[in-house]
């Protein structure tokens, strides 16, 4: 999921539970021109950082612990990542999203979208 600074979702992608986060990065960024890309260690890749910087955005991706030469990040800006965490905390207040009653991906995504709308209306 990508969101704006207000915590409103901009892009929602549903993946399998075992799919890695970094494989979705290009799809989440496609068609958007962010000033900064703030992400957790699941998105740590030199190739992705270069693509983000090539778009003119600031790269604020927490480096993995196993990196030999960790990338420097703006710690103050990285704290803004909590906007996404707060959004999910609010969205999971809706039982169908938190417990994933819907087994079909399209139905579950629809409920996530409805929950997103409800969070934005609050």
Number of strands: 4
Instruction: Catalogue the unreliable spans.
Output: none
Q: Specify the helix fraction band.
A: 40-55%
Q: Could you give a short account of the major beta sheet?
A: 2 strands, antiparallel
- Order of strands in the sheet with the most strands? 1-2
> Would you tell me the structural class of the helices and strands?
alpha+beta
User: Helix and strand string, N-terminal first?
Assistant: EEHEHEHHHH
Mean pLDDT over all positions: 89
Oligomer: single chain
Rg, Cα atoms, Å: 15 Å
Terminal CA distance: 19 Å
- Tell me the count of domains: 1
Q: What proportion strand?
A: 5-15%
* Morphology call: globular
Q: How many H/I helices? A: 6
Notable features of this structure?
122 residues; two-stranded antiparallel ribbon; two-stranded parallel sheet; 6 helices
